[in-house]
Amino acid sequence: MMGIAQKVARNFSEAVRSRGQSYFTKGRVSLMSAKPNEVVARVRGTTKYRVRARLRGARLLATCSCPYFGPLGEPCKHLWATLLLADSRGFLQSPQNMAVRLVAEPSRRAGAAAPAPGGPPAAAIDASDLLLGDRPRPAPAPYDGPAGPNPDYGRDVIIGAPKPPQGPSQRPTRGRNPKERNK
Q: Which residue of 26, 61, 160, 178 sits 20 to 30 Å from the alpha carbon of 149, by its own alpha carbon?
C-alpha cells in the first residue's frame, strides 16, 4: 500500500517536507494516541505542538497547534513529521488506487470558537485552496500621496546632519563689514 505521506505530499512545499523529515529522523515526534484511521502526536519544535490527523474516506482531516498552520491551515513541518511517523507505524492506510485530499480543520486552541454540542461542525479548509497560485490576493490600495499637509514632504533628508539655523538669516558676511555692504 502507498503511504499517506506520499498521497498528500503535493500539498507540502519541498522546504516543509525537508524540515518535517528532519524532525521525524531526530525522533521529535511522539504518538499520544493512535487508531488505524486517526493519530494524535506531539512534535517538539520551538515548543511542543499538537498534531491530529484523521482519515475519513478520501479526505485526510488535519490540524496542528503551531502558528504556521493557523489560521489558514498551511500544511506545516509538524504535520509532515507526524504523517511520516504514521506511515512507519502502519496507521492512516488507504487503498492503493484511492486519491486522498488533505483538508485542514480549524484548531481547537484556547480562545477558538468551538462548535456547539449537537450543532454543525466548524468549517474545514481544503488545503488545495491554499496553494499560492489559487490564493486570491487583494488589490493594492491606490496611492494618494502624503496623509495631510507636510511641509517636509519631498525634501531630501540627511540623517545626522545638523539642523539649519532658526530665526532671521544668519548669513556670514564673507569678510566684509556689514556697514559697508549697504553703501
A: 160
- Cell numbers for 86, please give them: 504514521
The model's pTM: 0.60
Q: Is 64 in contact with 107 (CB distance < 8 Å)?
A: yes
Beta bridge partners of 55: 60
Strand order in the sheet with 101-104: 29-35, 38-44, 48-56, 59-64, 101-104, 125-126
Say how far apart CA 38 and CA 143 lie, in whole Å: 51
What tens digit of pLDDT does each residue of 96-154 get?
888 899 998 876 653 344 444 444 444 454 544 444 444 444 555 554 444 545 555 45
CB 43 within 8 A of CB 85: no
Residue pointed to by grid coordinates 468549517: 123
For the chain, how far is it from start to end, CA to CA, in angstroms? Answer: 105
Q: Which residue shows C-alpha cell 558676511? A: 173
